[in-house]
Amino acid sequence: MATDRWREAGERIETLLAASGTGGTAARDRAELLVAEVVGLYGAGWQRVLALLDEAAVERLARDELVASLLLVHGLHPHDVATRVRTALDGVRPYLGSHGGDVRLIEVVGPVVRLELDGSCRSCPSSSITLELAVEDAVRAAAPEIDSIEVVAAQADPQQVIPTEALFTRVHANGHRAADWIAAPELAELRPGEVGGFTLAGQALLACRIDDELYVYRDHCPVCDRSMAGAALHRRMGAPPGSVVLRCPSCRAHYDPVHAGIRLDGDGHLDPLPVLTRSGELSVAVPEVVG
Question: I need a surface site. Which of 28, 60, 88, 216 has the fewest CB within 10 A?
Answer without folding.
Answer: 60
